[in-house]
Design brief:
The chain is mainly α. The protein contains eleven helices and no strands. α1 runs parallel beside α10. The two termini are about 20 Å apart.
Length: about 280
């Protein structure tokens, strides 16, 4: 298949599955496996950097009004060493606190995860496991809290859950929404907080990958056009996914994503065993 078309498909997959609770890292393993794509560029560091850049830009564009408030508020809180009962100041530092667990785990275990657990059979298992967590949290989690009710222990707890999503198939948005639901947040607030906290960790992961790229760990050389196509596709589909999720969760449960995860896991296992 043409490299540009593959880049377009993988960009759309990345953008949609980064924000739908179905695991982007899992899909980036499963889709090439099911399609029998073995092109080196799909697994290249440069292509990964561009896909993540697309989703990062999607987050920054969609939540631009939030970040325009939160960044100055966070700096002001640091300068004054006080929140002054300002919810934006408090939220800015809640988001900082929520990124610490995933950042620490990522720095310590990223090489192990990349080399040892990116296996399609394991992804099938973690798709089911993540689906069960999502189902339980959505069914039994309380529904009354909003973002204003998040405390620092809650933020760190949700951040710790987010760290588990470094395992392909779990889903960063899925596990974060699940953790938020378990501490009492309504669905829309849980998704919004999950997307806001994903912004700094996505930026940090991107910078980590760029550092490796600049250090000469990029491997295969990739032409510019597929990289740009993948990034733009990731950006546009990411914006669509964010908007869809926030609107969908105002009126619907997460069940459809649970059943999708189970169905995909079954397909992957059948194909894997058949090959």
């Amino acid at each position: 298949m043409d490299t540009v078309l593959q880049a377009l498909i993988m960009g759309v997959v990345q953008g949609l599955t980064e924000f739908l609770p179905v695991s982007s890292s899992g899909h980036l393993i499963v889709v090439p496996f099911l399609a029998r794509w073995d092109d080196a560029f799909i697994n290249s560091l440069a292509f990964s950097v561009m896909l993540h850049l697309g989703t990062l830009v999607a987050l920054l564009v969609y939540f631009r009004s939030d970040w325009v408030r939160l960044v100055p508020a966070g700096i002001a809180a640091l300068r004054d060493r006080s929140f002054h009962d300002d919810e934006d100041r408090r939220l800015a530092w809640l988001l900082v606190a929520s990124t610490i667990p995933a950042a620490v785990v990522g720095l310590v275990f990223s090489d192990f995860i990349e080399s040892s657990i990116r296996h399609v059979g394991l992804v099938a298992v973690t798709l089911v496991l993540g689906g069960l967590i999502l189902l339980f949290a959505d069914r039994f989690g309380a529904k009354s809290r909003g973002i204003d009710d998040v405390t620092f222990p809650i933020a760190i707890g949700i951040g710790a859950a987010q760290a588990i999503a470094l395992i392909p198939g779990i889903s960063r948005s899925g596990i974060s929404i699940s953790a938020a639901r378990m501490v009492g947040m309504d669905r829309e607030s849980a998704a919004r907080f999950a997307f806001l906290m994903a912004t700094p960790i996505t930026a940090g992961a991107g910078l980590f990958e760029v550092r490796k790229l600049l250090a000469g760990e990029g491997g295969v050389q990739v032409s510019t056009l597929p990289l740009v196509v993948g990034m733009v596709a990731s950006l546009v589909s990411g914006l669509v996914a964010i908007h869809f999720m926030l609107a969908f969760l105002r009126r619907q449960s997460l069940d459809v994503f649970v059943w999708y995860r189970f169905a995909l896991a079954a397909i992957v296992l059948i194909v894997w065993l058949a090959r």
